[in-house]
Specification:
Aminopeptidase; binds coenzyme A; 7-stranded mixed β-sheet; alpha+beta
Length: about 160
């Protein structure tokens, strides 16, 4: 039986531990990644969705938070946004939750008059599923900066015109 679609919502402080737990359990994320997620989450909570530079969206089913996305406008651009993070609970991958979260992030960016969404990821083989996810959801491989993260580990830039 197919799982029912998750409910999308703007998370509040009560969801912080679930969001950070999802991030901590993603094996691809380094401790430094989780620290950055914590910083963005903290700014989002302190300033609120209306004033924060970073915007979080979450998905839940039966009260359980299953994933989140975080996006924000790229400073000094007109209508260019970054998808900073997207992560789904590792026990709920391939259920369409990531695609639903990304679709909502795109809808919100459009609503804010955004026109271009950028998703950066790494070129190493562990990120192949992530790259497939972006290609499947309509992103174009726009650029590769070789040896960006470390020698042999490239930065891959995906874009979508909204
Ligand atoms: C990337 C991620 C958010 C995708 O979430 P998800 O809910 O599992 O993805 P979906 O079920 O919505 O997948 C949509 C499509 O993307 C593609 N896809 C997703 N995961 C894939 C995988 N592991 N291998 C191959 N294709 C994949 C498929 O085409 C899939 O459609 P299908 O299942 O009908 O074939 C999730 O895998 C994740 O949390 N990864 C770790 C964190 C990460 O890499 N984040 C991005 C960088 S910040």
């Amino acid at each position: 039986m197919a799982a029912t679609d998750p409910e999308l919502f703007i998370p509040t402080s009560a969801d912080g531990s679930s969001i950070l737990e999802i991030a901590c359990n993603i094996e691809l994320f380094e401790p430094g990644d989780v620290e950055v997620i914590k910083e963005l989450w903290s700014e989002f909570l302190t300033k609120g969705d209306a004033k924060s530079w970073y915007h979080f969206i979450a998905a839940r089913r039966d009260g359980q938070v299953l994933g989140f996305a975080c996006y924000g406008q790229r400073p000094l651009t007109q209508g260019t946004y970054d998808l900073y993070w997207i992560a789904v609970d590792k026990n709920h991958h391939r259920q369409g939750i990531g695609e639903i979260l990304l679709g909502e992030a795109e809808r919100q960016v459009r609503e804010r008059s955004g026109r271009l969404l950028i998703a950066e990821t790494a070129g190493k083989s562990a990120f192949e599923p992530t790259r497939r996810f972006y290609l499947k959801t309509g992103y174009e491989l726009e650029a590769r900066i070789r040896d960006f993260y470390s020698p042999g580990d490239d930065l891959i830039v995906f874009t979508k015109r909204l």
